[in-house]
Amino acid sequence: MTQTHQFDAVIVGGGGAGLMAALYASRGVKTAVISKLYPTRSHTGTAQGGIGAALGNLEEDHWEWHAFDTVKGSDYLADQDAVEVLCKEAIDAVYELEHMGLPFDRTPEGKISQRPFGGHTNNDTHKPVRRACHAADRTGHMILQTLYQQCIKNDVKFFDEFHVVDMIMNGDKPCGVIAVELATGELHIFHAKAILYATGGWGKLWEITSNAHTLTGDGTSIVLRRGLPLEDMEFFQFHPTGIYRLGILITEGVRGEGGILFNGKGERFMEKYAPTIKDLASRDVISRAIYLEIREGNGINGKNYVHLDVTPATVNKYLEMAGETRRVTAHDIETKLPDILDFCRVYLGVDPVKEPMPIQPTAHYAMGGIPTNVNAEVIRDAKGNVVPGLYAAGECACVSVHGANRLGTNSLVDLVVFGRRGGVAMADYCKNADFVPLPKNPEKEVAAEIERIRTANGNSKPAELRAKLQKSMFDYVGVFREAKGMKQAVDDIHELQARFAKDLRIDDRGRIFNSDMMEAWELGSLLDLAEVTAMAALERTESRGGHAREDYSKRDDKKWLRHSMSQRDATGKIKINHDKKVVITKYQPKERVY
Amino acid sequence: MEVTLRIQRFNPETDTKPHFESYHLKDVERVDRVLDLLHRVKWEQDGTLTLRRSCAHGVCGSDAMRINGENKLACKALVKDSIKGEKGTIQVEPILGMKVLKDLIVDMEPFFDHYRSVMPYFVNDEPAPEKERLQSQADRERFDQGTKCILCAACTSSCPSFWANGTYVGPAAIVQAHRFIFDTRDKAKRERLAVLSEETGAWRCRTVFNCTSACPRDIPVTQLIAEIKNEIGR
Question: How far apart are CA A221 and CA A275, in angstroms?
Fold first, then answer.
């Protein structure tokens, strides 16, 4: 039995962006949040180091500096009008979180405490600036908890463990979504005036990732399947410091507190690659440096990892060499980075207070995604024409404020600022809009596909296909790329898509909590996004931010100050255009040196 | 090394009651997580095995389970903590005190009902200042422990008082209340203490310390409950 619900506003995803949007939308109109997880399980909760905002609590800072750092970090691909919105509103957003009770760490005067973070600088001295507002090393956890708490307080309606699998269109107008209730396997139709996707990223495309198992880009994939474009999909961030082999994130806050990267020769190699801010350069810069060091045989014991050292002896030695008066103690490290210490002690048996951590770059964050304007309205073309009633915010969206490489802390800023804008915009829209009627049997198509998966009796298990996909993406569409490898990846993906369509094997034939079936569904989303990512990467014949090509090693501003827009045409082929120009306000592109 | 996973299974569509099944795994590494082994069973041997999980590093709170009789997160329990030699068995069951829906998945709704009952949100209706509300480092530190809670239910489902009577709000809800009661910025202390002083509140805690042992975030849960009892008595 398919049940039908009606809400003015439906928000898909219960992480930071979705909850922020829900808080605002629910003040004005009847709102529901649909999430495949209990909202507190969302990946916002794993963000560690901080949320960037130029509060200037500890030293001089300006939102314009934050904006310049963001633009430079983006390798000049971010749209500067959107970046200005992000950085200006970050300040107010952080105060709003504090007013909601978020337990930020405090300065001796009782203000919100701030720490240095990669790529955040004083624009006069070019030295690191303390801009990341933090709550120990669990800032994302605090944001997620605080927003969820406020949603409880405001009686927001949740559909927990409902997995959205399709968007209902009447002609070219979105008018609802379809979800699987995981506990029963039943389909639910949510008829809505406005829909906001806040479904997060798709780091599970890669073998080594900081991302949760559930980060499979379902919402982004649905938008693609419904014929709309995705923007800048070739840009995916590899965070330089993931725990060796496991990929678990080690926050940039470790380097913010004074941690230093060393190669197998004991050299502080970032001095070579970023002479001014060294270990606090942008993430793409450091990830490439680590790869180059490993390639030259400078990994630890010749292996594919390097060391991150935050032992007080090392930190203090380099602070002294830098002429700084600040010193750290073991107690400081324990109190400022408790979760990092716990991860290393539990998973590695390594105590970071006494010895260095083995780290390698880990797939971390999607800069690209569902294209939106600054009001989180989804746009359908390079001209910026909006899809009425459709919104996206957070990692699944591309505003674009992160361009070719996101600055640390800006993901949290993004989800609060644009989640809020999305919530406000959809409430306004709903007040003046009518429900678009549902087409007849809107669930028919997706119900058939789900049934195909549930009863699939071929030979290819989802886990096998997924592992092959992740390996191909990691080898060929990772930190460094070249045409030959990317073509191989596209071929691999097409082969895996064919096996997914024709030879899938599912064990679980039940309906209640059929996670075998839903994991296969998620694999389908990943395959979509892999195809677009690899193809968009192949088309961009330059190196910029997170997209580093061995065969086109230079940035090419003449040709490529443009966003990619990838769309599946009626025949099923991915078509990519580059008509959308980067918006430049006051920061002219120049060489990017740290 | 070789590990036998002995897993409690229950398929509500075919079974009348739960039973155990064993799965043998070779080439297990000592530092593998129990979650890794559960995934190997699901992905290599039997796709019907059903569990909740997400982040896989102890932050999201999805995968609390009974592992060799103790409540743990499957993603934070390493094989070497359960097996000393080269071979051994690890038993995995759903957490206790909640209805089993399928295999290792339990009904979390009663848990979240208790959570919601203690007003687990910041209350301060005074006009907010233009910037942040100031708070001293010492005042911030006062409620730090409770802010670590990830709502995994390892504590509540290890509590004999909760097993005996599911109307008890349980340790997790009390930890959540504590986080706000001792926050100098919050204004609803009295209302929360009123909830916790009821028959189903903090007095049901018999200081067994199971919750403290079970907490994957090392929150001194029993101590926080004791502080609530003191606060009620004031």
Answer: 41
